[in-house]
Design brief:
alpha/beta; 5-stranded mixed β-sheet; 17 helices; 19 strands
Length: 542
């Protein structure tokens, strides 16, 4: 149980049920009717000098303190009377749980709550998962709390929620030594979670501004950025403010290392290529990697990127290239220490391999016979919070002649929802190993689940097109009160998982392993989808 809770994100606690029933009075009566061995076992957990506390929790209802006090009084008969209570650091935590259901009504799709609990439980906590009470000095803090977004050195405008990122990594069963991929990595929120579990992470991102920290990414925690810079460049680091003429959200600390103490590169690109050699995918690179892998005791400066002996692919940025200050700060368009690698230095995680590329034109090596990624975990841009783009040229726009090819950034066009989903499915089919997992977020319109016609209720009959047009219709929309849904709703129409498959893309090589719904604002939601690569058909052995 403790091992389960050590990695779990959503499990609050693992409980040993002592008694249950329709009400607490009946649950207490059932506990008192147990044989003497059961009573002696309960007594062994709360007898002095041990201390205990009782947590009263309601699921599907918000209760007042008076109701909780009444439950405490109801539980008195199961105690002898000499037990010692300790609300701050108890040896044992007992739980009194009440579960409520909703009754479907005519006025709303949710309906009023029932006044009688569905069932109640009296239980002992065997192991605590996530922090169940941050006010307790000895409260069990979840392992992922140190990665909270408020503590991160660098964030982006669409950085994924920390708990959700770790939840997705768990759904993908990420383990130490796995080769993981994030094809829409952004500022690396999901990659941080996968790196925590020891995976070698490769990311793809079409927007070089996000990778470099130019305008898009910003420093959230200046002290954390300073510590990350020290981990990255050495101890002699100063934090200074970059002059800016924009809003405060673009202000950031700049970490500058002493020029007299160059650091040896970590060369994550070489490490990833070495891993591919070790698992037998690219044996032809073995001599190449052997000459490029840096020695742990080497203190030589990084090789010149223009040298033919530099084995790092030019499309892979290992986060250690020496950049001129004016390249970052010219016109205030970039900030040192705000790139995608900063958070990995902050937490001393293995640096990811980042490729600036277009998912619609994938640059990855094709190993169709067996695949090479153990998992693919991603939050694709569906055009609501962040625009979904791919490389392309609008035929209606004039063609510009580019003279400086080194600074050329290809033009982009809209990346349709169906096309993006199809490309993601084919990516997983081609590059996942047998049994590998694809975990992604799929936005949905909750009106479809509830049978509500948005065209009639919000857009005066205008039929919706893309998801973005649903959120931001051209002529505006009215607010339908039926779509003001609580994120903790227990509406059976929304929790019916059999309906989810109709809104999830599919592929003949992938099996749907599970899906769960998260309620968002505006009548929208998103499905956390987990799919598994089916075994490839092998030719018969002679």
């Amino acid at each position: 149980a403790k091992k389960l809770c050590e990695r779990s994100v959503l499990v609050k606690a693992v409980l040993e049920v002592w008694s249950s029933g329709p009400t607490f009075r009946e649950a207490v009566a059932s506990a008192l009717a147990h044989d003497q061995s059961a009573k002696d076992r309960r007594r062994s957990f709360v007898a002095p000098p041990k201390t205990f506390q009782i947590r009263v929790e309601f699921f599907g209802k918000t209760a007042a303190m008076e109701e909780k006090k009444a439950i405490f009084d109801t539980l008195r008969p199961i105690f002898v009377g000499d037990e010692v209570a300790n609300l701050h650091s108890p040896d044992v935590t007992l739980w009194a749980l009440e579960e409520y259901n909703h009754q479907t009504g005519e006025k709303t799709h949710v309906g009023p709550r029932t006044s009688i609990p569905n069932r109640v439980f009296i239980a002992r906590q065997v192991a605590g998962g996530r922090s169940i009470d941050k006010k307790l000095k000895s409260g069990e803090k979840a392992y992922f709390h140190k990665y909270d977004l408020s503590q991160r050195a660098v964030l982006g405008p669409t950085t994924l929620d920390n708990e959700l990122a770790f939840l997705m990594a768990n759904c993908a069963r990420v383990q130490s030594g796995h080769l993981a991929m994030e094809p829409f990595c952004g500022t690396g929120g999901i990659m941080v979670a996968m790196s925590h579990f020891g995976a070698r992470v490769t990311g793809g991102e079409i927007d070089i501004r996000v990778v470099k920290g130019w305008r898009v990414a910003y420093t959230k925690n200046k002290q954390a950025a300073l510590e990350a810079a020290r981990n990255r460049h050495g101890e002699d680091v100063q934090l200074r403010e970059r002059p800016t003429k924009t809003k405060d959200k673009f202000k950031a600390g700049t970490a500058k290392a002493a020029p007299s103490s160059p650091a040896a590169p970590s060369s994550p690109g070489v490490l990833a290529m070495k891993h591919l050699v070790d698992i037998g995918i690219t044996p032809e690179l073995a001599p190449f990697v052997a000459t490029c892998t840096p020695s742990a005791s080497s203190s030589a400066p990084p090789p010149d990127s223009s040298s033919p002996q530099n084995c790092n692919n030019k499309n892979i940025n290992n986060g250690n290239n020496e950049e001129k200050e004016d390249r970052y700060e010219k016109d205030g368009k970039g900030v040192p220490g705000s790139d995608i690698f900063t958070n990995f230095y902050q937490y001393n995680l293995l640096q990811p391999d980042i490729v600036v590329c277009d998912n619609a034109a994938r640059p990855w090596r094709d190993v169709a016979s067996k695949g090479w990624f153990d998992c693919i975990v991603t939050d694709p841009p569906y055009g609501v919070r962040a625009a979904s783009k791919k490389q392309g040229r609008d035929p209606a726009k004039a063609v510009n002649i580019v003279d400086i090819h080194g600074a050329y950034i290809p033009p982009k066009v809209s990346y349709g929802e169906d096309e993006l989903a199809s490309d993601l499915m084919s990516l997983a089919s081609e590059y996942l190993v047998d049994g590998g997992r694809l975990v992604f977020l799929q936005p949905v319109d909750l009106a479809d689940f509830l049978g509500i016609d948005r065209a009639a209720s919000e857009r005066d009959g205008v039929v919706k097109g893309s998801l973005r047009e649903t959120v931001y219709p051209e002529k505006g929309r009215k607010k339908d009160p039926r779509l003001c849904i609580s994120e903790t709703t227990r509406d059976p129409l929304l929790l019916d998982e059999t309906k989810y498959a109709d809104y999830i893309p599919c592929h003949q090589d992938l099996r749907l392993a599970g899906a769960s719904l998260q309620i968002l604002s505006g009548g929208l939601g998103r499905l956390l989808v987990t799919m598994e690569r089916l075994p490839r058909l092998r030719p018969p052995q002679p």
